[in-house]
Specification:
With 245 residues, the protein is of the alpha+beta class. It folds into two domains: 44-144, no CATH class; 159-239. It has helices spanning 6-26, 147-152, 167-174, 191-198, 228-239; strands spanning 44-50, 56-63, 70-78, 81-84, 95-99, 105-108, 113-118, 121-128, 130-134, 140-143, 179-181, 203-206, 220-222. The strands form four sheets. Strands 1-2-3-4 form a four-stranded antiparallel beta sheet, with no helix packed on it. A hairpin with a 4-residue loop joins strand 6 (105-108) and strand 7. The longest helix is centred in the N-terminal third of the chain and has 21 residues, at 6-26.
Length: 245
């Protein structure tokens, strides 16, 4: 004899188990597959970019003929085939970090210049650093420590560290018409932010309030979760005096 209620508890457990089995059998098949990407004689490989065409790019390390060290080399994987990209300079190094849907890859030589690669050809971007992302319009975001190279373009002026009280003098001296405030963490009420706002100039900034603060006319609030490529895509028309769509 079972105690009163025991049968119903067991029946309920059995019913729940049957329901779980039925649900498990009814689950849809996975809509993805796993593909191994490997380079000849590689020590390791790193994927850094995928575009909407399904192309994959990155770089890998492998032994090189005629030298005793391993070298990093960019690659493009497309239609199931991996193509090593070689090296843009005599330095045996190339690394790819970004790619757009037109098949333009961006990266650089470790310790050397930034480069793009497309259809078998490397193009030197003319500054020490690396390209990290590129959008559909060809605008590139990346990194550099070569301030002099940036200023040589005529479109940038690098001040070095500045205090908030010095910003007003810089705005007047160089006749800025807008400010990009690159504060990559929420620092509400920071003196630099206050000085930029007090200048009366349009300001692009990361909106850590997620839309909770009022936006001044002409300002460009940016979602901090956006990718570098999307941020560049939104900044370009704003820097030209047009509001992004």
């Amino acid at each position: 004899m079972f105690p009163a209620g025991a049968f119903f508890r067991r029946a309920a457990i059995a019913a729940a188990s049957l329901a779980t089995v039925a649900i498990a059998h009814a689950a849809p098949a996975p809509r993805y597959s796993i593909t191994e990407i490997a380079a000849p004689a590689m020590t390791w490989i790193e994927v850094t970019a995928v575009n909407n065409r399904g192309d994959v790019a990155g770089y890998f390390r492998s032994p090189q003929p005629g030298v005793s060290f391993e070298a990093e080399q960019g690659f493009l994987w497309s239609d199931g085939t991996l193509a090593p990209l070689g090296f843009p300079t005599a330095i045996r190094n190339s690394r790819i970090f970004g790619m757009n849907d037109k098949g333009v890859l961006v990266g650089g030589v470790n310790g050397g210049n930034a480069f793009t690669w497309q259809d078998g050809a490397w193009r030197d971007l003319g500054f020490v650093g690396e390209g990290h992302s590129i959008n559909k319009s060809g605008a590139i975001a990346g990194t550099t420590h070569a301030d002099s190279d940036l200023m040589r373009t005529g479109q940038a002026f690098v001040t070095g560290p500045v205090e908030a009280v010095e910003l007003g003098l810089l705005f007047r001296r160089f006749q800025f018409d807008r400010i990009v405030l690159c504060m990559t963490q929420p620092l509400f009420g920071h003196p630099l932010q206050s000085a930029a706002t007090a200048s009366g100039l349009p300001v692009a900034y990361f909106d850590w309030s997620r839309g909770g603060c009022q936006v001044r006319s002409g300002d460009l609030p940016l979602d901090p979760s956006l990718s570098a490529a999307v941020i560049v895509e939104r900044l370009l028309p704003w820097l030209q005096g047009r509001q992004p769509a």
